[in-house]
Amino acid sequence: MEPTIKSRPVYGTLSPQKGTEHLLIADAEGAQAILDLAKSAPEGFFSAAEIVYIPRAEGETYVAALKALKPARFYDGPSIAAALPRLRQTFATAHMGLRVYLAGTEGLIGQAMLAATEAGIDYSSIQTEHRGSLARRVQCVHCKGVTEDVTTQPVTCAHCGLTLFVRDHYSRRLAAFQGVCINAEDRSEQVPVEEVFR
User: Fold this and answer.
1) CB–CB of 171/7 below 8 Å?
2) Cβ–Cβ contacts within 10 Å for residue 85, how many?
3) What is the pLDDT along the chain (198 residues), one digit of tens a residue?
4) Per the CB 3.0–4.6 Å rule, which of 12, 28, 46, 99 could disulfide with 19?
5) How far is CA 110 from CA 47, 122, 142, 145, in A?
6) Residue 82 CA neighbour count, 13 Å, CB half
7) Rounded CA gap, 31 and 54, in Å?
C-alpha cells in the first residue's frame, strides 16, 4: 500500500546482498528479521558481517540465536543512543561494498539510517524491515525536543509539555515524525488520548 504522505517511510523485507562487508542493525523483534535473512544467506555471509543488536526488554532471547550465526563481530548494546557512536565510527571508516540492513522499530531504523546518510551512504541503498512496535519518535515543532517511543495520539511533549498531534509527516533529517500543538487556540481544552501506535 502506497503511503498517503510521501515522506512516510516504506519498509521492505531484508534479503542478502552481494558485498564485501555486511552491517546488520536490529532492535527487539528486528532480530527475527536477521534470523529470517540467514535462512537464504549464502555460505560465508556472516563471516564478513557485524551484527549490532539492541534488546528492548530484559530477558529477550535473541542474543544467543544471533551469536549462533557466527558473525565476524557482535555488539549487544543497551540502547540505540549508546550504539550510535560505534555506528558513526563504522560508517566513517567503511569501504566500498558495505551493505547495510536495518530491522526493528521505526526509532532504530530512522536513527541508524540518519547516521549512515550523514556518512555519505545513500538511503536508497539501505535495506529496512519494520518489526515490532509501531511506537514513534516525535519531534515537537515548537521546542524542537524529541520524545521517544510515542504510542498515543495526541502526546504530551516530554520537553515543553505541549499537547501534540502526531503527524504522518516524517523527517529523514531528524529521524522523527513531526508533532504540532493540537490545542494552540485554547490550551485548557482537553483532547482525548488514544493509544494508536502500538
Assistant:
1) yes
2) 10
3) 455 677 788 899 999 999 889 999 999 899 999 999 999 999 999 999 999 999 977 777 799 999 999 999 999 999 999 999 999 999 999 888 899 999 999 999 999 999 999 999 988 789 999 999 899 999 999 999 999 999 999 999 999 999 999 999 999 889 999 999 999 888 888 889 999 998
4) 99
5) 26, 14, 21, 16
6) 11
7) 9
3-state helix, strand, coil in the chain (%, to 5): 25, 30, 45
Calpha distance 78→162 (Å, rounded) = 29
- How many angstroms from the chain centroid is the CA of residue 130? 8
3-state secondary structure of 175: coil
Q: How far apart are CA 180 and CA 157, in angstroms?
A: 10
Q: Which three cell numbers stand for residue 166?
A: 502526531
Q: How far apart are CA 44 and CA 49, in angstroms?
A: 9
